[in-house]
User: Which sequence fits this backbone?
């Protein structure tokens, strides 16, 4: 069992009649990038806010970096860096001064760390400029530098590519991958399926405050995988395959049959067809996209296509 | 306990790091200095045309300092409310409060550090006003020459620290008031507006009601502004001019009464603000 850095049990937040987060139980193992995926209003930011102590849960419990949150939240938060929603800094201070201030209240690190972080996020040349003069991309990058202050073990990044152009998004995603090395864990919330698919190792999918699925990205997608093949007799093959209990559906398209079934069971498909005298001419696994998976599991919730603004 | 205090002082130090880079506190200090200098030099000018012992004491040491502190207090209340609401409310407006608390900064410690900074700034501003007034009083005294014949010698150096203490302490309930309303409304503008409306409305209501109802004097003796004015007017420094809003009507509570009532206001409003700040969800909207 992997060490868990975040563990929630039936975490719930209710605002008057609105149930923002509903009995959420997630487990985030140490290392890699864990995605919280869901459309706007699915409870991602509220979940992060509860974990960071900004919002009180209505019910439920959670542990951060092994600390019980009733007694050790402050201690845990000292080892967590976070961006929650939009970049929030003092507009009249420069980027460097903003980082210096936050470093001062965190109480760890020195001016060398600030220069290193400014360099890491590519802001060294504009570090002396006032935050109010920064572009959206520069603001997001400063947020990441802020989150990295004190060299935290766990990073919470809430929609870190919001408002960025495609080149900026690609840069930030690359940076996130880089940050997840050396045993650090990144908890990334996003409504961008493409982003989560590209960056995350594991994912929890939220819809209307509820957990729909969680696990390793590869396992989740393989659960909903498919096998595409062509045979010596596609009509008979379709009938044979449809009868198998672990095959969800079979469809004919562009001269191929597509069976919705786990790709690792494709040898069983081949065997079932061969037993009935049907030979397989060609067969290949088809990985379902996260977008298709998301649409299937969340019903009519509409996720954002790649690059779509929030 | 010592570790917590050290933590609050560290937060206070970093609050000052931010605040000293804003224009607002320096403009406010400038206003206080201009007003105090006007008082000294207008008194000096009046003395040139109409020689009077009382006027002479207004611009020469030690009498100038308690008078200037009284004036600085009446204007300072207005300024301290604006500064308090701004220092707290902008954290909500810029959403920086979420960035600060998300890194493990304790809520009550953070709010306490803001309050400590405002208290220190209020005292510091009064000290600067005193120092500048002392210098200008020396110059004005030298220019004016000897005191007019028959001048009373009622001004005493002991009145200087007493006036400073009273002026500084009388700021504290207004810092607490503005802190409470800003935390309650999560807005600089609303915190400022409600606190200032209270400040002026209280003096107007007291003035009207004291004329209409004799029993209102008891009620008035427990109001914030009334007690702040009572504290500023108290003592043997009878020559000190009264600039406090709410003064001049009915009889004022004693200094001890005023001190105790103001202490209760400070603790109650400050405590409520901290309690509210700790309870509140900090959502993004």
Assistant:
């Amino acid at each position: 069992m992997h060490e868990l850095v975040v563990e929630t049990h039936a975490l719930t937040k209710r605002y008057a009649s609105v149930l923002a987060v509903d009995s959420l139980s997630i487990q985030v193992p140490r290392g890699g990038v864990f995605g919280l995926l869901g459309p706007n209003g699915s409870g991602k930011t509220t979940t992060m806010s509860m974990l960071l102590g900004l919002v009180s849960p209505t019910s439920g419990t959670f542990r951060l970096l092994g600390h019980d949150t009733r007694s050790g939240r402050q201690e845990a938060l000292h080892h967590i860096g976070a961006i929650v929603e939009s970049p929030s800094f003092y507009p009249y201070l420069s980027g460097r001064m903003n980082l210096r201030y936050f470093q001062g209240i965190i109480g760890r690190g020195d001016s060398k760390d600030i220069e290193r972080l400014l360099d890491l996020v590519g802001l060294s040349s504009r570090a002396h400029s006032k935050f109010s003069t920064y572009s959206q991309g520069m603001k997001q990058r400063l947020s990441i530098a802020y989150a990295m202050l004190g060299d935290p073990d766990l990073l919470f990044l809430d929609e870190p590519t919001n408002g960025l152009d495609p080149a900026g998004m690609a840069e930030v995603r690359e940076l996130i991958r880089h940050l997840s090395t050396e045993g650090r864990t990144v908890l990334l919330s996003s409504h961008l399926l493409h982003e989560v698919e590209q960056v995350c190792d594991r994912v929890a999918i939220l819809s209307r405050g509820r957990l729909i699925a969680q696990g390793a990205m590869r396992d989740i997608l393989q659960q909903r995988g498919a096998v595409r093949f062509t045979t010596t007799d596609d009509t008979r093959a379709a009938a044979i395959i449809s009868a198998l209990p672990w095959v969800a559906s079979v469809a004919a398209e562009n001269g191929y049959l597509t069976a919705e079934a786990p790709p690792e069971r494709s040898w069983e498909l081949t065997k079932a067809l061969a037993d009935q005298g049907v030979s397989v001419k060609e067969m290949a696994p088809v990985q379902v996209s996260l977008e298709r998976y998301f649409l299937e599991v969340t019903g009519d919730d509409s996720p954002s296509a790649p690059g779509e603004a929030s | 306990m010592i570790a917590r205090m050290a933590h609050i002082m560290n937060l206070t130090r970093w609050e000052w790091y931010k605040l000293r880079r804003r224009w607002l506190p320096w403009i406010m200090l400038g206003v206080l200095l201009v007003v105090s200098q006007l008082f000294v030099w207008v008194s000096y000018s009046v003395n040139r045309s109409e020689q009077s012992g009382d006027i002479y004491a207004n611009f020469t040491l030690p009498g100038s300092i308690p008078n200037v502190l009284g004036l600085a207090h009446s204007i300072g209340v207005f300024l301290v409310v604006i500064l308090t609401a701004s220092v707290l409310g902008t954290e909500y407006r810029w959403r920086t409060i979420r960035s600060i608390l998300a890194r493990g900064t304790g809520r009550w410690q953070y709010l306490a550090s803001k309050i400590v900074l405002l208290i220190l700034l209020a005292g510091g501003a009064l000290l600067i006003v005193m120092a500048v007034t002392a210098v200008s009083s020396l110059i004005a005294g030298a220019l004016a020459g000897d005191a007019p014949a028959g001048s009373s010698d009622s001004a005493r150096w002991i009145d200087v620290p007493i006036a400073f203490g009273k002026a500084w302490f009388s700021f504290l309930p207004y810092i607490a008031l503005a802190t409470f309303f800003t935390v309650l409304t999560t807005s600089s503008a609303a915190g400022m507006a409600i606190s200032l409306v209270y400040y002026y409305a209280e003096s107007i209501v007291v003035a009207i009601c004291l004329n209409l109802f004799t029993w209102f004097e008891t009620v008035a003796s427990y109001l914030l502004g009334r007690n702040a004015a009572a504290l500023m007017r108290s003592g043997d420094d009878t020559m000190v001019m009264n600039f406090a809003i709410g003064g001049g009507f009915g009889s004022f509570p004693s200094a001890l009464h005023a001190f105790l009532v103001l202490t209760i206001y400070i603790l109650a409003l400050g405590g409520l603000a901290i309690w509210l700040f700790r309870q509140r969800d900090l959502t993004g909207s």
